[in-house]
Amino acid sequence: MDFQLSEEQQLIQQAARDFALKEVEPKAAELDRKHEFSHELFKRMADLGFTGTCFPEEYGGSGGDDISKALIVEELAKRCASTAATLSITQITPYGILKFGTEAQKKKFLPPLLSGGNLAAFALTEPQAGSDAAAARTTALADGDHFVLNGNKCFITGGAIAKTTLVFALTEPEKGLRGMSAILVEKGTPGFSAGKVEDKLGLCGSETVELFFKDCRVPKDHLLGAPGKGFPMAMELLDFARIGVAAQGLGIAERALEESVTYLNNRVQFGKPIGAQQGLSWYAAEMKVRIEALRGLVYKAAWLKSAKLPFSLDAAVAKYYGAETACFCADTALQIHGGYGYMKDMPIERLFRDSRLLKIYEGTSEVHKLVIARGVLGLK
Ligand SMILES: Cc1cc2nc3c(=O)[nH]c(=O)nc-3n(C[C@H](O)[C@H](O)[C@H](O)COP(=O)(O)OP(=O)(O)OC[C@H]3O[C@@H](n4cnc5c(N)ncnc54)[C@H](O)[C@@H]3O)c2cc1C
Q1: Is the shortest distance between the CB of 201 and ligand 1 below 6 Å?
Q2: CATH of the domain at 257
Q3: Cβ(362) to ligand 1 under 6 A?
Q4: Based on the domain organization, do 76 and 163 belong to the same domain?
Q5: Per-residue pLDDT tens digits for 231-261
Q6: What is the pLDDT of residues 268-326, one digit of tens each?
Q7: Which of residues 114, 133, 165 is at a domain's end?
Q8: 77 lines ligand 1 (CB under 6 A)
Q9: Any idea which residues carry the catalytic annotation?
């Protein structure tokens, strides 16, 4: 067992740390305030190889492993959780193409997404099908050489700006879940449109939209994987995505502690730094313990995936604990900062708002407890 990051991982961590501090941090508050996604930052991440980390170079990737990817997301989340979330979520579809795509699909779709500065969206959720993704109603019926898509998806990150969107739709509705397939839809395809950008509580620097499909014709060779296998494919891709959310939680929690330590040492009340009050110093201790426990869970899940070992349960445990830890640390940091933490001048209120989504998206905390319990009890 080795707890040391490899030399390559340390270099990637340092590059991500420098980029996040010098280029992301100065823009984070403004992107949040204006509810704006930064194409410029995303393009910079592509140039630095961050959007292609843990993908093979032959498809435009930049190599590296899943721990490297987690380290990048962690560093970004410390400075701007929106940027970290966008990077993390927009990797789900390329991962799906790499894992389930044909050689032709990999060559066609991956390079622009991994190194070209283009985004990919993952469209599973529908208005009536959130936690119960199997209740999806969007259809993709065969018609000659095409599938014809009808229906809508909601809460899709980057959906309006993505070059490629992976859409889960019923190709054989009469078969229910066994009739769900995964189809790649390109931006600009007639019949495919996006609604307004949602006005959210947090992660305001990432775009969330509803997607509409109206007699949208997509060539049959855009089917990803086998027909009828969309649902298990979506679940497998969410396993991968969960490591990314857990890494976001780690970054948010670390930033909350970093800000808290400075404040505990510098804010003077009753003639001494507030950190000298035992009750408040214990907050820092509790945050530290949870952060180190989470770090172990995130890196372990990423390591298992890189080692091609089963990682599904570990990813769910890390995601669940990552969301809880981010929320606990952001809330505690807000308490430590008192009234000043509640003001928009400080990054604490943004951390507090951003952390909250982690308990909801890519599977809620409640659903994660069900998934983890099933794994622990050995149930299918
Ligand atoms: C900002 C944002 C970005 C998102 N990005 C994407 C994206 O890119 N792609 C995508 O496909 N989706 C995306 N989502 C959707 C997200 O994954 C869903 O919101 C999430 O899965 C929960 O679904 P829901 O919101 O419909 O809540 P519901 O499923 O309606 O849940 C409501 C409540 O009931 C609880 N609940 C439901 N079922 C059970 C159960 N069986 N047992 C116990 N409790 C239960 C839930 O935990 C929750 O507390 C995004 C959502 C948001 C808010």
Answers
A1: no
A2: 1.20.140.10
A3: yes
A4: no
A5: 999 999 999 999 999 999 999 999 999 999 9
A6: 999 999 999 999 999 999 999 999 999 999 999 999 999 999 999 999 999 999 999 99
A7: 114
A8: no
A9: 362
